[in-house]
Amino acid sequence: MKKLMCIFALLLPGLVLAAGSSVPLDKADYDLTDKASLQRGAQIFMNYCLGCHSMKYQRYQRTFSDLGIPDELGEANLQFTGEKVTDYITGSMPEESASTWFGAAPPDLTLVARVRGADWLYTYLRSFYVDESRPFGVNNKVFPEVGMPHVLQPLQGTPRETNERVMIDGEMTERYVGIRAEGDGKLSPEEYDQAVLDLVNFLEYTGEPARLESESIGKWVLVFIIVLFIFVYLLKKDYWREVH
User: Which residue windows are transmembrane per the record (predicted)?
Assistant: First the structure.
């Protein structure tokens, strides 16, 4: 019984996150080695997300260094809140004001990719649609009744929920097809998908900045262990040969 309770406790966070929507998640083919993508993602985050959200566990300087951006260039083009390059990335909106406007302070996004997952983020950011009944005029298929505006709408354009009428069990019914923009955004649908993927790539990086370095070190550790095992095995054979 205790084992079942432990397993349930481990699975509960994932079940809670998945319970909000029945929309299938699209695969986010991000690449942490693609620095150009990471730089574009950082630019999108600083321009469209940082007004409300923060990354209080990530420093500007570490970000610039990892992404191959000179500090001077980063300060000039990616810092808008008057902070130093050595400071943490914090949003410009006071928490008290955010709580008043949104009902709750927008969450910190440093670890959001580790909590939600890249596929969830990629699908969520492409699933806003116009819903005049909501306070900000939009809703989301992945996160119904979401309490935030569609900040990337200037890039995507006005998104509309698309459905088709199909026959199910002898009755005509509406079936969700997807989200289509009206074409009034700065980007084409393909370009917008790539922009979202760049942003997700950046969020994946901030969730674990040392991931690539850790994986590289891990490979060399495995090689060392294999070589050490070979030497230990040969030493053991030589030692026991004298015993026998």
Answer: 217-235
